[in-house]
Design goal:
It is built from ten helices and no strands. It has helices spanning 2-18, 25-48, 50-53, 63-70, 77-89, 91-94, 96-101, 108-133, 139-167, 179-190. The longest helix is centred in the last third of the chain and has 29 residues, at 139-167. It is flat.
Length: 193
């Protein structure tokens, strides 16, 4: 995350150095859009820091399981299952990021939502994703995929249990952003000033 913050700052400086008179409003719009997105990501990582106080921040990486790989037929089922298997195999390593970055005391509303969301992901993998994987007739692929789903479910369940046993007892009810942060959030994420 800290490397990405440095990279974003460098990108913004580089982008501003490129700024000149643009031939049309569309080109200027594109420039401003790129600048806005870079500044938005920088704000989210350097100031808003959801990665420290919201476990759900890390779950966005799981969305492609449902929305891309299972619902869209961009390649064969077996190829999509291979991608899913690789994805699932990497979940244990991925879950080390929230373990490293999350504060020990989290807002209870965000924590409870994360626990509920993890239950949903686990259920999705155990039921819907397994049903999708079982469409393959490749026995080797099926064996690897079933092992990967078991690994992923065990890792997600372990992480969920950590949230319940280690974080929930220390949860707090201080989740209000405050006026200053809220105004910054509106400006940086919605371009409202």
């Amino acid at each position: 995350i800290y490397d990405r913050i440095i990279e974003l700052k460098e990108d913004i400086v580089h982008l501003i150095a490129l700024k000149r008179d643009y031939p049309d409003s569309y080109t200027m719009f594109e420039f401003n859009l790129v600048k806005f997105r870079l500044e938005q990501e920088l704000f989210e990582l350097a100031e808003y820091k959801e990665y420290e106080n919201n476990p759900v921040f890390y779950f966005h990486a799981f969305f492609p399981l449902d929305h891309s790989f299972t619902l869209r037929s961009f390649t064969s089922i077996d190829k999509r299952i291979e991608i899913i298997t690789t994805f699932l195999t990497n979940i244990p390593a991925y879950l080390e990021y929230p373990r490293q970055n999350l504060a020990k005391s989290l807002p209870d509303i965000k924590l409870n939502f994360a626990i509920s969301a993890l239950s949903g992901y686990i259920n999705f993998i155990q039921n819907d994703l397994i049903s999708f994987i079982n469409q393959s007739s490749n026995k080797d692929l099926l064996a690897k995929s079933i092992a990967a789903t078991t690994l992923a479910v065990n890792s997600l369940t372990s992480f969920k249990n950590e949230l319940v046993s280690d974080y929930l007892p220390q949860a707090h009810q201080q989740y209000a952003l405050g006026q200053s942060m809220y105004l910054q959030l509106l400006k940086k994420s919605e371009d409202v000033s």
